[in-house]
Batch of 3 targets.
Target 1
Amino acid sequence: MQKIKCIIVEDEPLAVKILKDYCESLPQLELIATFRDAIGAGLFLQSTTVDLIFLDIHLPKLKGLAFLRTLTRPPAVIVTTAYHQYAVEGFELNVIDYLLKPFSFERFVTATNKVTKALSSQQPIDKEAPIKEFSCFLSIDRKKVRIVFDTVLYVESAREYIRVMTTQGEFKAKMSTHEIEALLPPSQFVRIHRSFIVAIDKIEIYTKEEVIVQGQALPIGKAFKSALTRV
């Protein structure tokens, strides 16, 4: 198939550099322009057709999601932001994926592959699929709490409960690690012990005996040593 023509709408220079490097690492992507605000991007789109926008939410003058609402026939959109609370609104606007900063190259590839698959098959992108892959609801203190997968560091068994450690804090739910494992996307998580499941892109260091996630050492069970060949 032809290359996917994309633009970046992002006002943080470091984030632009990372996205440019990631785009240049994938032969199917052709980065044709970058913009620091949505107004410039909107003017560009009036005369130029693109296949994909990497769109930040917190932009000067016009916010990313507000800009997206102004487009009558928007191309595929991958949102890039540090704020997970806008994710549901983003998916209601039919964005393809939602990348929480800082995101890994592997996570970037997963998002762009969704666009590649949809364009190559000439089929509309399934709006429900990203939502299922993006988060789940857990029963916590008699309330349903949305857990965003990109924020999860690891899951630990605590007898009849689990502790879900995230970048937003700790959540405790009455369920087993087997039950939570069934909800987590296998492309993003790996079980390293009967009591621990870790987010692959949050692993900082690992040895034959342990994994380090944000300075926390987690043991590797004998039966799970081969699982780290995926990392």
Target 2
Amino acid sequence: MTTMKTTSTREQIIELLKRREQMTVSAVAAELNITEMAVRRHLNTLERDNVVVTTLQRQAMGRPTNVYELSNEGQELFPRSYGELSIELLKIIQETDGMTKIEELFERRKDRLKRTYEKRMFMKGFDERVKELAAIQSELGYMAEVCEDESGGYLLKEFNCPIAEVAREFPVICEAQKSLFKELLETDGVTCELCMATGQGDHCYYKIVNSQAHN
């Protein structure tokens, strides 16, 4: 017996907004054949969860009306092939110019990220830098958190890896990231204990110590 997947009303609304781009409550209600009250309840939840955003649209006649559309977070709910495309392009570069060119590309990416974020490290002590690094990584989609280690250092955990697909094919990108951490924190004491891209665990796990403090 084949079990069919049941699509929730909320999922139907998200798909409608993806297809139509912008819709009013009444338009969604008419499309799904449900009450406007039910649509508003779902849209309020989706707006609270940052899946949809609303704007007030003026009409030629009558009162302005709310128009709903997917937010950036809502758009990301749909499948994307960024990782697959990146891997394909990197393999072409590797076949043409060799692995040295790949390493050079990731090194340049690391330098660009450093220039972007080093200003946020300015005039901060080591402890503050570590916490700022966790904030930066979370903003980049890594779902990072940091806690103090009993040995006096820090443990940085990343529960998501936006570049995992690429890192599985080109682990050199993980080395470049570790190098970025060292440069932003101004310490050589950064070691990667676990890496989800290589299948070692379900999160990435870094141990960080202030090597300057031991000199």
Target 3
Amino acid sequence: MKLQRKNRLRATALGVIAVSSALALTACGSDDNDKGSSSTGGTGKTSAASNIKCDGAKGQLLASGSSAQKNAMDLWVKNYMAACKGVEINYKSSSSGEGIIAFNQSQVGFAGSDSPLKPEEVANSKKVCAGGGQGINLPMVGGPIAIGYHLEGVDSLVLDAPTIAKIFNGKIKNWNDEAIAKLNSGAKLPDKAIQAFHRSQDSGTTQNLGKYLGATAKADWPYPAEKKWPAPGGQAAAGSSDVAAQVKQTDGAIGYFELSYATAQSIKTVDINTGAAAPVKATSENASKAIAAAKIKGTGKDLALGLDYTTKADGAYPLVLVTYEIACDKGNKADTLGTVKSFLTYTSGDEGQKILSDAGYAPIPAEINAKVRETVAGLQ
């Protein structure tokens, strides 16, 4: 009897300790299990752990589009939801084309796109942006489009624009081709077939690759810069993550995707011979040098950028993209406007932009970003 009584007392004591520990952990909270424990959403208060303002934010915000910015968006959403209690940002990573369609069908509060809206897409947006509003381009994420490859025994690879064009349109079929060997003196290139992977659905990343090749290798890339893959041959995969996965697992493969995907999966990337003093590596810093020369070509509140793909500046990586968030300049839905403004204020702010470099992206140049913040603040 005495032994049973001691066991009961011991069990009770352990239970108290366990409950106390659970309460302590709950009080501390975590980003994964207690989103928003450090702030009260929709009250205008600022998170104790950050400068994220939750002014007017409430409920659920649906968004979709570019998979190029997925890794940045994942970080932003996690941080924002940790700060703004009761607010849910649901970003579906698909493609730029699908995101714009969803936006123009009034299915999402904003869309992500790797290319600015076309005139016909702007015209369609006027049907969903009330009061004479229209969709505008807000540059939010910059970064290099990496040419990733998997070639056993080859740890460093240099290509130029004409060679990249010939690889992706099937004119160069083998890794020991003379054009590749000439750019990689001393490298032991295997007699192995090239397996080139491209995006299967409409993609802004594809369009930006097309713009680069059209500007720098027109004779070898005679295709219009569209979101749909234009060249014959090759193998298709759904999103940037799928293209990267195929390259990762296939010896002899090459593909294109944002640097963050190469970094996450330890995929080797091509250095590009631009005609500068030395081939340029795909890094956030080098992409920033190229994006810094961009000019705003949009009018009014639209901030679409013009990029110089032909730069030969030392250390400037020319194959870059800028991802835009697409929103109505006015006529946004009343129930999501506060959340859209709050979230995009964070992503375009110092805190949101600062995390981009660590994730393999490049922040938007300060002068342009200042206009983005001003425009976001004025969304109606």
